[in-house]
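Troubleshooting: if your tokenizer reports a length mismatch, compare your output against this known-good record of 360 residues.
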Amino acid sequence: MEKQNFMIYGSYGYTGQLIASLACNRKMKPILAGRNAKKLLQQAQQLQLDYRVFDLDDTTATDQALGDVVTVIHCAGPFVHTYQAMAQACLRTHTHYLDITGEFNVIEGLMSMSEQALSANIMLMPGAGFDVVPSDCLAYYLKEKMPDADKLILAISAMNDPSHRKLMVSRGTLRTMMNSITETTYMRDQGKLCPISNNIKARAFPFGKDTMFTCEPISWGDLSSAWWSTKIPHIETYMAAPSWITPLRKGLNFVKPLMQAWPIPKLIEWQINCLPEGPTQEQRHSSQSRIYGEVSNASGKRIAALLKTPEGYDLTAESTLLLVSKILNGQVHPGFQTPASAYGSGLVLEINGVQREDIV
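Known-good structure output:
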């Protein structure tokens, strides 16, 4: 069977819709896919695209659906629950795998499949969107500038409105955040993932001239992807967030056992479903994301850089299609890969609106 074209699984979700619409604007013809036949039919009719209905739990149907596509963009999260089934199907059908996760444990899981991917002659690349293309490329760039770096710090300012008072996230992102908000926060030290130490707390980072935001430590995907790309043994990741997030996280820690007790999960899901599907086009276009990165070495020398990008969801649509284009053109690096390990630090600069500057 000759392989051609690409598939978007979970194409009717908020981010999947953005990717599919941008693909159509660029005269690309992805195959839409997911398990909800009604939503797929509606989307396929609107975009005039082919579609396939299948559940990842049905291995026969999944293998048949993937059999003739070159690569799949996996958009159905939370990925901790779905990545294994999709990745295993890609291994069986020799289909290149992309996803848009920012979950470090998912990246770790796919990393462990690297030898299988090499044997199948396919590429497994998580983090093909805002999580983690720009931060991965920035980390790789800083490592190039300081090859002996032994510490990497990344801080992200994204998913906030211009006033920096409220989150602008999709329902899918919020579900992932709620799944992890009471979990242990991690860092990487001496090359190993470990709970964050007590002396690592919120701190302010420069995101531009006269622009400082206080950022909280988080378990961002770069704890795994940036380590794979750079092999820097100590990595910390932070995110700027509205001021109410910190007390919320602390408060939830006191009621952590209740978060999984019936009917709390049902109530949380009901509340999420009452929210808008995601940021409006106007909100996205009026926002900008920024990533601060710094590396240091054993002698205490430090260098830093700042990356300015389009809003995160818009960048995800751009970066996934950029990666798909490279794969369809035969630019493939089998095995587990991060965006930067496969395509270098300049990958993100191929996206319109991205700027990188060194900080003196």
